[in-house]
Design goal:
CATH topology: Creatine Amidinohydrolase
Order of helices and strands: HHEEEEEHHEEEEEEEEE
Catalytic activity: Release of N-terminal amino acids, preferentially methionine, from peptides and arylamides
Number of strands: 14
GO molecular function, one term: metal ion binding
Radius of gyration: 17 Å
Helix content: 25-40%
Organism: Allostreptomyces psammosilenae
Cofactor: Co(2+); Zn(2+); Mn(2+); Fe(2+)
Binding site for a divalent metal cation 1: 100, 111, 239
Strand content: 15-25%
Largest sheet: 5 strands, antiparallel
Shape: globular
Number of helices: 4
CATH architecture: Alpha-Beta Complex
């Protein structure tokens, strides 16, 4: 299903997007050396409930997971990159942590992810991984707008990641979003320009470039959810939900304090 939102829906999407972004920034500020991933999950649950919103993850049970997911946020550390299931792990200095959060409020969902380094140590490889995904995300957003094609976004994202020297996995990528978390169209992290679905105002997309330092192959943890690099190398993941507008693309998952 491809869903096109009306102006009232879009106003609600802005509120959901801001909530997702604010929760992520709050969790980031609390994620220090010694923080347990299960505490992050508890904090997230409390903020979602307080906002009168609903987690898109806790009851999520797609065909590729061993569901339901059972937690409120994805916490991926170091070689984990996607669907990181919170568990009893204490963050250490230099850990690369990815937080991925999807929430629904007033019937509209938003999805975002941030990667950052915990503590004072800043390994160069981790810094480069995060930088590449953030630049690729901005390139994808810049390529989005009315009349553009999904392939234009994929090409923009893939060009940045490839030029940075990373292999690209196409099993998981961006997606449509709206009244539900995962919708068509699929937005691969590499592709050919001028191909695919033609973007229209009112379409919401979650764009999410992610990479692994020296491989494109994933392995799945025994928990049935957490996806890791096959070689044990570090990973990073950046994501925003955007709305296609008459003028281009609007980022919905910016923190309120960062909005114009």
């Amino acid at each position: 299903m491809i869903e096109i939102l009306n102006p009232n829906d879009l106003a609600r999407a802005r509120e959901t997007g801001a909530l997702v972004a604010d929760i992520l920034q709050t969790i980031k500020s609390r994620s220090t050396v010694g923080t347990n991933l299960l505490d992050i999950d508890r904090w997230t649950k409390a903020m979602i409930v307080e906002a009168g919103a609903v987690s898109c993850y806790v009851d999520y049970a797609p065909s590729f997971g061993r569901g339901p997911f059972g937690h409120y946020i994805c916490t991926a550390v170091n070689d984990a990159v996607l669907h990181g299931r919170p568990h009893d792990y204490t963050l250490a200095d230099g850990d690369l942590l990815t937080l991925d959060l999807a929430v629904s409020k007033d019937g509209i969902a938003a999805d975002s992810a941030i990667s950052f380094i915990v503590g004072d140590s800043k390994p160069a490889e981790s810094v480069a991984l995060i930088d590449a995904t953030e630049r690729a995300l901005q390139a994808g957003i810049a390529a989005a707008g009315p009349g553009a094609r999904v392939g234009d976004i994929s090409y923009a994202i893939g060009s940045v990641l490839s030029e940075a020297g990373y292999s690209i996995n196409t099993e998981f990528g961006g997606h449509g979003i709206g009244s539900t978390m995962h919708q068509d169209p699929h937005v691969a992290n590499t592709g050919r320009p001028g191909r695919g679905y033609k973007l229209r105002p009112g379409l919401l997309l979650a764009l999410e470039p992610w990479v692994m330092a020296d491989t494109a192959q994933l392995v799945t943890d025994a928990d049935g959810w957490t996806l890791r690099s096959a070689t044990g190398c570090r990973t990073a993941h950046s994501e925003h939900t955007i709305a296609i507008t008459d003028d281009g693309a609007e980022i919905l998952t910016l923190p309120r304090q960062a909005r114009p």
